[in-house]
Queue: 2 jobs
Job 1
Amino acid sequence: MISEADIIRIDQPELTASERMYLPQIVDGMKTTLRHLGKNLLKNTFTVQYPEQKRDLRLQNYRGVHRLNRDEQGRVACVACYMCSTACPAHCIHIEAAESPWPDREKYPAKFDIDELRCIYCGMCEEACPVDAIELTPQFDLVGRTREGMILDKEELLAVFDQTAAMKPRKNPHVTGYAGTGSRSCSCEIPISHVPPSAAGASAP
Ligand code: SF4
Ligand code: SF4
């Protein structure tokens, strides 16, 4: 039971006539609008005229549409380890692993889908990947007419890599033992010469 001494009674404040008509709030709002207008005019900062103009984005860490990277032989760099789908908090990555056709890795993704509508663009998949096969790109203007169209499959994710590789080159892979998944400019301790010669002629899926 609450004692009477613990109860704090708050009386409803009396509003003036102008407060009942929201006049102070309207004046405050107008002051804020005029302050920003003055700042923008003085500093010459204007709204970006999207889509004719696009903002310069941070290429290295902007979290936009995903891509699946290719290795130095044009193959999908993913080794189907499921680290990204395990780390994904939105459960929007679907991978089906298959036996790799190449001798330098055990598995590769026969299927690799990402539901771009379900994704929350947190970047956990990129952080989890041991071979830097999945990355988020500065592409932010992905559109689709259907929900199914916003589920990107492996070929579409590889196509995003082809479109963005010049703008954002692939990072070097971490040292993982997957020698054939790196880039030629790899500065890690596994030399590219470790890639078995037979893998060099393999076709990209
Ligand atoms: S960015 Fe986050 S939510 Fe999106 S696929 Fe990667 S881990 Fe999942
Ligand atoms: S973490 Fe990297 S290598 Fe592993 S399944 Fe995902 S994209 Fe492929």
Job 2
Amino acid sequence: MWTGRCHCGSIRYELSLPNLYLTLCHCEDCRRSGGGPYQGWIFVPRKYFHLLAGELKVHRYEGRERSFCSDCGSPVTFAESAFPDLVEVSAGTLDEAAKLVPRDNGWMQDHLPWVPVDAALPQFLHTAPTPCLD
Ligand SMILES: [Zn+2]
Ligand SMILES: [Zn+2]
């Protein structure tokens, strides 16, 4: 069981699965919406994501949606209409984020040259393939 929250604490959630798959996304959309040079996402089958407190503000575009805390702006989730059973959770909002281990780097096409990348991890030019989680 994993827990997480936004910066101000209005949003709290729980992920009811033992092992988390962390991908690092270097796409421009993640950069602009998250404000960092890249963004860590955890692939979570939707049934394991439980919102415990707060209401997410959802931004929809091009078949995708990103959710944020409407009070502090922390990015919380990302989802695509092509994968309705999957939600990606912003790795930085996890309480035990230090325990996560990145598995791959996605959207290297948009990678910023000054961001170091672990050469031992797989790299994908576009979206990292969704792992089998169940
Ligand atoms: Zn907040
Ligand atoms: Zn991205």
